[in-house]
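hey so u asked for the seq, here:
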Amino acid sequence: MLSALLVMLEIAVVLGAVLGFAAIKFRVEGNPMVDKIDAILPQT
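ran it, structure tokens below
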């Protein structure tokens, strides 16, 4: 049972590292469509 827990922990750590790397690698600075819509709509 301990080995199963360790395997699940290892999988969680690896997937967390992959997600962290992907979040940094594929970061988006801004959405140009949102900027265009924000410029058109009146601000309150």
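The longest helix spans residues 2-25. The mean pLDDT is 93.
lmk if thats what u needed
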